[in-house]
Amino acid sequence: MLGSWGQQQRSRGLAEDTIKDRESTVRRFVDFAGSYPWRWQASDLDEYTSLLRSKGLAVSTIRHMHGVLSVFCDYLIDPAYDWVEICDSCFGDTPSQICLPWNTTRHVQDYEGNPARRALTFEELQRFFNHADSKVEAAVAQGRKGALAASRDAQMFKTAYAFGLRRAELRGLDLADLHFNAKAPPWGRYAVLHVRWGKASKGSTPKRRTVLLVPELAWWIEGMRQWVEQGRALFPAGELAMMWPTERGSRVSLEYIDRRFTALRRELGLDPALKLHCLRHFYVTHLIEYGYADRFVQEQVGHQHASTTSIYTSVSGDFKNRILADALRRFTTPEGS
């Protein structure tokens, strides 16, 4: 069944990672239920969901599991395939849909993540970048190894913020992804970033987008130019001109990026809820505060829907006070004055 279902998903163009993840989800449910799909009942799903809730799994994770099992059951009972007839003939029982409207988790709001997740404050961001830079200075001053890697990491995190990148987008950058912008000649090849490893959806290949550097974040150019023209060249060439190589000539891993961010955050004593993705949240917040149009912000970060961008926005109190002050000024100023 799983093999045939996998073939059906490949014919739809779904990625291998997606297919493997779905197969693992089904196998875990088989192990819990202790029976094959043609003997599953809705009560099995109820018990499994209760177990996952008791373990503290996120609502979004449980909803994903429900979605996978629902799609699998739909495949089994689809008349275009013969699984109902085969099971009835061989086992005297048939598969059915166990994921029903009254026993599955629904998507009832845009954001279902951890409420503790938030954007960094300006002070936290500055402290984080200063601390990352200090690692380079300390390694150089002590004459020990690690200065080059520390320089790479510091610029890598600054790039994640300056362009609002996800982890995979950041990791997948190559030197060739740096581009010119005719509207900003002084910035040279550092005016535009071509993102080729954007988040895929519905089995698509990674989405691509072009992200423009905004003037408020042009401070990023100096450090990036120094990294590209001086630091990057000291690493092994490797097979590709990757932006963030390791000493072995490979790309930094997603796990390494997470570990380094976590290590720097812990050393500073910052909120444990702050993750690398919070830099992306802060980027969206800043663009809104700088006055950029919602549609521009949406295009910059590669969101398909404006509602997704809105949940990233966490404008500061100062910004809200400025908006309120402008509104009060318009309300209290006499007409014609």
TrEMBL record:
Question: Which residue ranges does the record assign to the Tyr recombinase domain?
Answer: 115-325
Give all residue intervals belonging to the Core-binding (CB) domain.
1-77
Molecular-function GO terms, alphabetical = DNA binding
Q: What is this protein called?
A: Integrase
* Alphabetical list of Gene3D superfamilies matching this protein: 1.10.150.130, Intergrase catalytic core (1.10.443.10)
- Domain of life of the source: Bacteria
Q: Which UniProt keywords apply?
A: DNA recombination, DNA-binding
| InterPro entries in alphabetical order | CB, DNA_brk_join_enz, Integrase-like_cat_sf, Integrase_catalytic, Integrase_recombinase_N, Tyrosine_recombinase_XerCD
Family affiliation: Belongs to the 'phage' integrase family.
**A Pfam family that the UniProt record links to this protein:** Phage_integrase
**GO biological process per UniProt:** DNA integration; DNA recombination
